[in-house]
Amino acid sequence: MTDQSPPALTTALRAAGFRGEIETDRALRTAMSTDNSVYQVMPDLVVAPMDAADMVTLERVMAAPRFAGMPITARGGGTGTNGQSLSRGVIVDTRRHMHRLLDFDAAEGWADVEPGMVLDDLNERLRPHGVFFAPETSTSTRCTIGGMVSTDASGKGSRVYGKTSDNILALEIARPEGLLSSLVPAPDWARPMLDAAEAAARGGRAAFIAATPRLNRRFTGYDLDRACPEPGGFEWWRLFLGAEGTLGLVTKIRVALRPLAREKRLLVAGFGSFREALASALPLAEFEPTAIEVMDERVQKLADGAGILTRLPPALRASRGQPLAYVFIEFNGEDPDDLQSRLTACETAIRALPGARAIHMARDAAEIRELWAVRSAGVGLLGKVDGRARPVAFVEDCVVPPENLPAFLDDFLAVLDAHGLEFGIYGHVDVGCLHVRPALNIDTDRERLVAVSDAVFALTRKHGGIFWGEHGKGVRGAYLRDWIGPEAYAGLQGVKAAFDPAGRCNPGKLVGLDAPVPAIDDIPFRPFNAPEGDALTRAFRCNGNAQCLSYAAATPMCPSFKATADLRQSPKGRADALRAWRQARLKGRVDAALEADLTATLDACLGCKACASSCPVQVDIPAMRAAFYADLYARKARPLADRLMLLAERESVTLQALAPMLRPVWPLLARIGGALTGTVDLPKALAPALPRADRIGAADLARPLPEGTVIVIEDWFSALFDGAARTDALAGLKALGYRPRMLAMRPAGKTAQSLGDPRFKTMADRLRRHLEAAAATGAPLIGLDPALVMQLRQDYPQAGIALPPVLLPQEFLSRELAAGRRFPDLAATGPAPRLFTHCTEATGAAQAAADWRRVFAALGVEIDTPATGCCGMAGLFGHKTRHQTVSKRLFAMSWAPKIEAGAPVLATGFSCRCQTERLANVPARHPLGLIADLAAA
């Protein structure tokens, strides 16, 4: 018997010259086993080809008889809601390397891209040329063009721009014999395959057309209609649009480009109920907007509870807890007068509609993006619903003629009511597409999932619609044969047999050859809930929304994924692996292979906590990593480097006291410490002691403090190594008229907490008592470093530790301004300083940059606060030798381009200042230091 195992395939691929990654890592395969659906299918191997040539090599090797039984499935952003890219066998990760813009011609209106290119990435590169690729999906920050082609994705504005299939001009695919492109005549080896496909397509075309409603959100996936145009010819590549990888691997896509509208406006209206919002859609469509979208009261309430609606203009915020349903109406155009005329008429019409309670018009492009982001973020929050049943995407993209939408919705809600199900609704009412997400507990409600699916499928037929209008079919392809009819389905089978006679391309999806595709409950489901109170609950609640997979360098979440494009190095990937590991532990087992791979991927997490704030369901990887470490190191010894860092933190008060004696020999100690802990570029000097007048200890807290006293709290790293920031903070606050005193340092236990050391609780209790004594004086408490403040604000409450409020400097100063305090007018010359906030601060305190701008504006000083991601230092991460590549890449991606020569650099975080000096050779000051300097000038 020949060896068809993953190791044998790996050997064969390397021998054939495959250059990309070939991996059996358990953490990676587990991450690839889920998407944004309820399903989970474990692949055997994950490959990440470098380019089209690698794709051909992969196809050629896998065409050998010895590997004939191994499936092959392409994967893009992994945002599918119906298990589209889940399969055993080989998963082809196109996102990791094949994400290039190969060529484009803005004048002729086309661009050639690789399938792994992210939609927002493409449009950002095209924007300076005045063109864009039209389909606007809610997952545009992470969905790939290949995935959009695969599912024929749609989204906002499809009434005008159409679906993905309406915006594709040509494809190139990989075959064992080579590349096949629709832009050039087919080679001889491809003719028999294409002839067979054409014969099958033409044979089923009439039945296909007869079974397909003529809607804006037309049915695709083996589109027999457009592949065989009436005048003749055969456009084989159209069969791949919506085919979900079941016909082969796409290597290049030619997309159609459209001119960017010169003028864009967005009306957002709030209605008293979803019914009233829905009723507004048809009247508003008369004004020819580009898109009309709705969001029901349930989604609005979730968004409000998460603080997302604070980003809305005050006029749109619900008052006294009154829920609102929102309608988003976008207008695009070239003629500002015509646009304004339509807007005015539309606004007048809205005010006259029943239930209209609020309206706001956005003209600025940044505000329009922000308002649409509120809609997108609100949808992601559906997964955050408390309880074991949560809204699930499985019947959410049905399309019916817009005039049939109210009746269809009534029937749909009757089905949900009959099953006692809660739900959330949003969607594109202008094209008859409402996304309804029923709340299920997938661990126990699988029969209800099938019953609701069956009922809603029947309703789409009753109301002249399509069961799969936007998100592809995936596992729901089980309904395809009944929907399309036997004659048309036979045509689809013929197409499948022509391109994939062995049935190995994403098997079990859309079309079966020798057997029907599996039913929707025949595919394995992912675990939905952990036991009550489990420390890894959030790993089970990760729903694959994949907001953490954003490519944008200026977005804080998730730095390790941005630097590597490796799914296992993302909150989603880590949550998947943690969930699988936890399942084994709940059964009393240790999966040694998974545990080893999980340990490696968690080691690469920077601990920035962006996921804890930015993930819609707050999948807090650092907190769960700590729980994993606590279990792991209760069974085995910790690495020496970790033991030394834990010891240094615990004894940091003693080290500070010994600093005068240690200072002369510190350079030698730092070298020895670096060798023992595997770190580089440790601080070169110990911080000098502060004057007695600037310090405040336990005895001082027992006495009345002078008016204007503020107490500054520092972490152990700042106390030992950041003398400049300590001095700057005190001097800056003094310059503003305060009496700052530095509280005697007590370690907060961040290292212990991060590493799952049980001694964290002892340090935390000691610090809590210290802070309570300080707060009892009545003086405001201000944290020097954002990482410390965010730990006290985020991690301590999770550990059940209540603390008095500790403010960031800019929060304190902003509150003082709001209370009427006046600051001195400080003259500033030269270029505006650039102020960089710490990434944990940027996500955990969203107003951080705005607060600093407000403070400096009150001082008469203009500053720039560029948006950045993680600088790559993140505490000790950037000092570890094994993390240098990632650390430096992150700094180069996000910070380095924004550090301009001649402009002073301000950074709120100690780690950030270290990284800026280390990698850019630019000294960065704490912002309070600039205030001190300007006051002294």
Can you offer a commentary on this structure?
Strands 15-12-14-13-17-18-16 form a seven-stranded antiparallel β-sheet, with helices on both faces. The termini are far apart. By secondary structure, the chain is an alpha/beta fold. Among the domains are: 263-462, 3-Layer(aba) Sandwich (Vanillyl-alcohol Oxidase, Chain A, domain 3), CATH 3.40.462.40; 537-632, no CATH class; 644-936, no CATH class. Strand 5 and strand 6 form a beta hairpin. The protein contains 38 helices and 25 strands. Helix content is 41%, strand content 12%.
Fill in the keyword field for this structure:
globular, 7-stranded antiparallel β-sheet, Vanillyl-alcohol Oxidase, Chain A, domain 3, 38 helices, 937 residues, iron, FAD, alpha/beta
